[in-house]
Amino acid sequence: MIGLVINAFGNGLCVVAGVGSGLWTAAAVNLNALSGLSVGVFLFIFGMVNTITNQFLIRRVDVPRFIGEVVFVLFFSYFVNIFVNIFTFFGVNTWPWLIRAILSVLGVVIFCIAISIYQRANIFMHPNDDTTNILRFMYLRGNATKSQLLDFIPPITIIIVCVILTRQIYAINIATVFSFLFNGTLIEHADQWVMPKLVHNFKIKTGESD
Questions:
Q1: Are 70 and 48 a contacting pair, CB within 8 Å?
Q2: How distant, in Å, are the alpha carbons of 28, 103, 128 from that of 170?
Q3: How many Cα neighbours within 13 Å face the side chain of 89?
Q4: CB of 51 within 8 A of CB of 70?
Q5: Torsion angle in degrees (nearest 10) through CA of 111, 4, 60, 138
Q6: What region, left, alpha or beta, does residue 208 occupy, with left being phi > 0 and alpha being psi -120 to 50 degrees?
Q7: What SS3 string covers 139-171?
Q8: By C-alpha distance, which of 16, 175, 203 is closest to 119?
Q9: pLDDT for 8-27, tens place per residue?
Q10: Distance between CA atoms of 123 and 78, rounded to whole angstroms?
Q11: Stretch (H or E) spanning 201
Q12: Which of 54, 68, 81, 141 could form a disulfide with 124 if both were Cys (CB 3.0 to 4.6 A apart)?
């Protein structure tokens, strides 16, 4: 729950500051520009696709994992909206560009810390972060940076296709580039520095952990 709220806080800060955010959010914004459907709809679709993908990646049906990830997406969306409203109330979106840029980068750092916390706890998490966790420990020998970069391929592809079709690019800015370059590194450092006694509890099969 701590990780969920911190993640929502960081994402809400990125959204309101308006100087870039995570690549999946940027992909949703560009699809919104292409189709007219809301960003929230695409974020929910991404979450559901990740949830189903995870079942294939772990090579078995895990109903509690599936339900937990769907529930996380619903709560996450709710808390992001709360923080967006709070930051908007305080006028963060009207602050000078440089301050908003710093806040957007800070938002990325904050949600990376949150990801580190709930990936280690491995109770329930955002399906996309479970995807990177599975890739990290089942396929990439624990390398968080490689798992994040691999996970970025689909949203980057979506953004490229949207740019070709619309001839415009949206939601790509300083914080987006920062997220692309440092997400994995930030998560690895948070593993060591934030709640260091909380060790990875990645379950490969029922009854196993790592």
A1: yes
A2: 10, 19, 21
A3: 6
A4: yes
A5: 30
A6: beta
A7: HCCCCHHHHHHHHCHHHHHHHHHHHHHHCCCCC
A8: 203
A9: 899 889 888 989 888 998 89
A10: 19
A11: none
A12: 68
Percent of the chain at pLDDT > 70 equals 96
pLDDT in tens, 103-149: 999 999 999 999 999 888 888 888 998 998 899 889 998 888 899 88
Which pLDDT tens digit goes with each residue over 148-199?
A: 889 999 999 999 999 999 999 888 899 999 988 998 899 989 999 998 888 8
Among 4, 3, 5, 45, residue whose Cα is nearest residue 25: 45
Cα–Cα distance for residue pair 195/198, rounded to 1 Å: 6
**pTM recorded for the entire structure:** 0.81
Those residues with Cβ within 8 angstroms of residue 156's Cβ, 6 or more apart along the chain or in another chain: 23, 27
Asked if 80 contacts 86 with a C-beta cutoff of 8 angstroms, the reply is: no
- Residue ranges of the alpha helices (H) in the chain? 2-17, 23-35, 39-57, 63-89, 97-121, 127-134, 144-151, 153-166, 174-193
Residue 66, Cβ density class (10 Å: 0-12 exposed, 13-18 middle, ≥19 buried): middle
Alpha carbon 166 to its chain centroid, in Å, reads 25
Q: Give the integer Cα–Cα distance in Å for 51 and 130.
A: 8
